[in-house]
Description:
By secondary structure, this protein is an alpha+beta fold.
Amino acid sequence: MFSRDNWDEIIEALSSNWFRTILxxxxxxxxxxxxxxxxxxxxxxxxxxxxxxxxxxxxTMFMWTQTASKPYKGLPKGRRYNFKTxxxxxxxxxxxNLRFVSPRNQLGGFGGTNNVVRGLNTGAYNVYxxxxxxxxxxxxxxxxxxxxxxxxxxxxxKVAVIGEGVRSGMYKTGEEVIGTxxxxxxxxxxxxxxxxxxxxxxxxxxxQKQIYVPFTAFSQAFNRGNDVGWMAITAQDxxxxxxxxxxxxxxxxxxxxxxPEDERAVGHFDLYEEFSKINGLFxxxxxxAYFVGILVLLSGIIGISNIMLIVVKERTNEIGVRxxxxxxxxxxxxxxxxxxxFLTIISGMAGIVLATLVLYIVNFxxxxxxxxxxxxxxxxxxxxxxxxxxxxxxxxxxxAGLIPAQNAIKVKPVDxxxxx
Length: 420
């Protein structure tokens, strides 16, 4: 344990040449500042990209039919087939750890022909036949009314939930929409709710121009029978849809007489797999940030090590006297190491404070901005990063003082006293 005299000695040794000490400390300050800023910038980019998923259940796969690429059981290649509602039940029964299996049908599409009419207004919109679970797979904010429920499904009610983009295109500003009717492909549907999609999926405007109706009413109104256009399948949180999808494909291929090795017959988009790749990218970015920051910090540590060597050289007489008066090698080594650690931590903490101030200013400037359309949001670092930075500083201080401390204990008292 160090007494006040020891601390006074540390302060005196480092303040004997303020300009030299400040220049040396700046290297560590700059290194830790760069490290924190790089990590915060990476986190800001991560927040912005993940915000683009808009709260979508990322453990989800979307699956649709394609043409068979191999003949099987007397059936030719190139044939088309459709999912059926029985396929949905089979997947739910035979595949474990699934949270949702949502069959979907669709009309229209971006750039399609006008399929929705209200009075003199017409528009081309995506119209989906869905089950209520889809709102948990593709989250949206219900801005008025309600979403589709199971009473709508069971009774095949011709009701619709429209996006804010549809509302602005088909209705006047301030006009009440709940209880009104839209004609979709010649069939009237009553509007029961409006929504606004979350996040930024790269096509935010089109995401607001969609209409959701009950799956059963869609099938009845547009003569789809028991056909299913595509499915949204979400796994439980303790499972991975990427690991479960081969079993899903196996069930579909078996039920539709598709060759087991036909990899093209079932189209799919694995959102979890893509999300995992993005997470891997950010892990790599964090590693790069640590690598670059530590390299910059290393240059500062080398500077501190050099300055401590100079300090030891300047205090050769003092060290010789202390050795002659009985100071142990550990006392000498400890004093030099403490000076090195003290200088490193003080300069490093100054770098952390400066970086925190910069991040505060950036976040304050972004506070009034709409970041939903940006790929960057809330740059920040958590407590774990700060603790990691402090650990790096302590280790760096030890390394910086190790060689000077070893040189100090090699000083022989007689030789030191002869230096004058």
